[in-house]
Every structure is written in C-alpha cells, then in structure tokens.
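User:
Hi there, any thoughts?
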Amino acid sequence: MLPYQTLISLTRGTATGLGQQLTAAFIRLIQQGVLAAGAQLPGTRTLSTLLAVHRQTIVAAFDELEAQGWIEQRPSKGAIVSRRIPEVQPLPLPTSPALLDSPRAGFSFTRSAVLAGAPQITLGKLTLDSGCPDARLAPLAALARKYRTICRPTAPHRRPFGYTDANGPLTLRHQLVRYLHETRGVAVRPETLFITRGSGMAMYLATQLVLQPGDVVVVGERSYPEADRLFQYRGAQLARVPVDANGLDVAAVEALCRRQRVRLLYITPHHHYPTTVTLSAERRVRLLQLAEQYDFIILEDDYDFDYHYASSPILPLASADRNGRVLYVGSMSKVLAPAFRVGYLVGPPDLLEEIGFLRRLIDFQGDAVLEQSIAELMAEGELPAHLKRARRHYQQRRDVFCDLLRQHLGEWFSFQEPAGG
C-alpha cells in the first residue's frame, strides 16, 4: 500500500475544509500518475486511521470524487480509480518571460487613435476632478436596507431576480416619470424612458442608431471629452462653436447650419462642461427653433441638473420640446455615487424599442436589484432628502474653495463663481 500519510498532507484550521483538501489531494495523485486507472484505494476506515481524520470526512471526499468521475465505488469491493481517466500528464505552466510578460496579443485587432486618447482614472488622497460625486454622502445605509429587504428569502414576488424589460424595470420608470415631471417639467411616459448603466451607455446606444460615419455633430469649443470621443469613434465630424457667459453661441450654430448639413448637436445646457455656464432661456428657445428649421437632433446631457445653488434652475430643453427633436440623457450615478451605474434616456418609443434590441447584444439588462432599490428609495422620499443634504455640502465646499482661491491666488487670475455643480 502507498504511504498515504506522507503523500497526503492536510492542514487543520484553514478556510479550506479537510474534506476539500482530501479531495484535491486524491485528484492530484491521479493526475500525476501516482494512482493509476483501476488502482484499488484503501478502505475509508484504513484511511481514517492513517490520516487521523474522521471516517465521515473520508466518506464525503470519496463521494465527491465519484461525483466528479475520478473514482468508482462498488458495494463490498471498495473504491478504485476510474478506468475512464486518460493517462496523461498535465502540461506545465509556461515559465518563459516572452509568454508571461508580453504586452501584445498573438492576433490582430482594430485599434483606434480616438480611444487611445481617453484619460486614465487615478486614485489619490486629494481629489480634484471635474465633478465626481462624493460617495461618502451617498445614502448607503438606506440602500443597504433596500438590498437586504429585496434579497430576503421571504420577500414578496416582486424580487427582481429574473430577466426584466430591456427598457428597464417598470417600477423605476414610473418613479423617474414622476421625478422628471416634478423637478424638471419634462413630459415623459414609461414607454418614452429607457434605463441604462449610466449616461455614457445611454449616449452610446443612441448615437449608434442616429449617427452615420461622416455626419456632422456640433459641440462647444470646450466640451465633454468623452462625448467628443464617442462621436468621433462613430465616424462623425465635429464642428465646434464658441461658448460664452450665456452658454453655447446659438448664432454661430445658425451660421454653421446655413453652410452645411448638421445631424446632431450635443449640449450640456444646465452647467456647460467644463465652464459651468448656463445656457440662457432665450438661447434655448432659439436652439429648439433651429433644430426644427434645419432638421437636426439635440442630444441634451443633463448630468448636473440636481446641483444648483443660486436660484431656481432653468428647465431643460426637453421640457419645451414640442416637435420630438430632443434626446434627453440623465444619470442617477451623479445623484448617488459613481459605483451605482444607473442612467436614463428620454426619447420616442420607436427609437427606444430599437435601442432595446441593440442593448441586448451587449448587456441583456441592467442591475435589476440596484434599480429596484433606487425605485423604492424614490417612492419613500429618501432621494429628495439626500439631494437636499448633498447640495448643502457641495455648496459649502464650493464657497470654501472659492475663498481659498481668492485669498491665495487672487492676484494671479479671476474667475466666476459657479452657480452649481
């Protein structure tokens, strides 16, 4: 008989139980050829004595080995190594530095200069970014309670653990319909609302269907870089127009439309990225008129509407859209924290239906548990309370930072205090 007490080493008090260790040890002996196909194994009582392990642990390990096909157990005859196991040695792991450390794939693939320009996220103790919400302010305790309730085995049938509508769960869409109407004056119905994993996904899906290579997209001279890259990756040509204290220069947009065919205009009217200036009401009205006159789409990225301090904010372009020219994009990730990837797109039902077909090719549905949790937070009024607290914190931080800039760098430059963000 083989010296099993030296071939098999078991460690007590670890996260891996003795039964699992024993199963793995026998598999290793079989793979290494120490135990050949058809070899008789010791009885469970014998192994229990040799290895100083309870017999039931041996029995459980043998049952697992049999279930995986490594051994065969026969009544009154004991266990043997399965005769169906091929007598092959596993290949050794590669040790060549060329194989382990090579940065290049062994095949060709498409590389884009547009994607290569994307910034890398860096983590540090001090955060000076372009508007990332502070996760410490997020209502994590309330969200955790919702997760526990939804995941409880005795929870009602509403538990969202199956496949859902590609447009997003109806519960969240109903809550967003009410939320967008009450806070932004946007007339929306559940069938004109599409839930995504963040605003970036919403814009990606929409532009895949409404843009063709060569289409002209109007953006500000200073604009959101990720949106610029998205349009360029689709093959669009960017046409930049000036941005002043009143937002995007609408007169320049009109002049551009007279010269060439414009397919889409991208805008962040509430707080223009990155200057934070607000598009004036007069320019909003004129922009909607131009969209109808020159037959172009307005992609309104309203990522920052909930953070405004000075006065009541001007309502989005989508709230005054009467001709179906505006695709309206928003994000709950900005309201909560970056990790909670929930965004939405407001648009015509026929477009959203096609977007649903496209979305299923890359992501069958969103995070249904997260989406249900957010819907319940909204239904219970937790979201407005959180936003009120968050606005107070962010306004205080803005005031402190602006005071420090004036105090220490005031003689070097001047700036306009942002009204929100």
About this structure: DSSP finds 15 helices and eleven strands in the chain. Residues 241 and 255 are 10 Å apart (CA to CA).
